[in-house]
């Protein structure tokens, strides 16, 4: 694996772990604000992001590369309404999609063919993740987020399976 690709993979592992930490942190805030279902949804999201990091780590290891972790740095997400929270999640996922696309482009340039199928999986995974969050935002736009609407949304998101 070329140094440029390895470096980009390392940076992506970091980004996935930072995503995991971000969702974990947001989940704790939801718990405090009396939204256990959304907290659960975010915790499952945290688990998925950790798995994403593992996929890249396993790929690097399979190719004889070692990976070193850096400090976790997450941005502060300020939100008052659940709509704001999920808009921030969507923005974050769009940012991650952009990173995956850039990594895919780099892998092509560097003719790193073995990593392409993995990155193609990630490209589609990002389409799915963005769609999931957009669907939640559509629901919020449709029914609002006060009183029973928020209660039902929290119940529904609490059913997310691992
Ligand atoms: Fe991810
Ligand atoms: Fe994600």
What is the compact description of this entry?
The protein has 162 residues and is an all-alpha fold.
Can you give a write-up of this model?
The protein is elongated, with a radius of gyration of 17 Å. The chain has 5 helices and no strands. Helices cover 76% and strands 0% of the residues. The protein has helices spanning 3-32, 36-62, 82-109, 116-143, 148-157. By secondary structure, it is mostly helical. Helix 1 packs antiparallel against helix 3 (82-109), helix 2 (36-62) runs parallel beside helix 5 and helix 3 (82-109) runs antiparallel to helix 4. It has one domain (3-157): Up-down Bundle (Ferritin), CATH 1.20.1260. The site of one fe (ii) ion (FE2) has 5 residues, from helix 3.
Write the layout of secondary structure elements.
Elements: H1 3-32, H2 36-62, H3 82-109, H4 116-143, H5 148-157
Helix pairs in contact: 1-2, 1-3, 2-5, 3-4
The structure holds fe (ii) ion (FE2) (2 copies).
List the uncertain runs.
none
The helix/strand class is mainly alpha
Number of domains: 1
CATH H level, superfamily name: Ferritin, core subunit, four-helix bundle
Bound molecules: fe (ii) ion
Radius of gyration: 17 Å
How many beta-strand segments? Answer: 0
What is the highest CATH level, the class?
Answer: Mainly Alpha
Sheet-strand content, in percent, reads: under 5%
Question: How many helical stretches?
Answer: 5
How are helices and strands ordered from N to C? HHHHH
Share of residues in helices: over 70%
Distance between the termini: 33 Å
The CATH architecture can be given as: Up-down Bundle
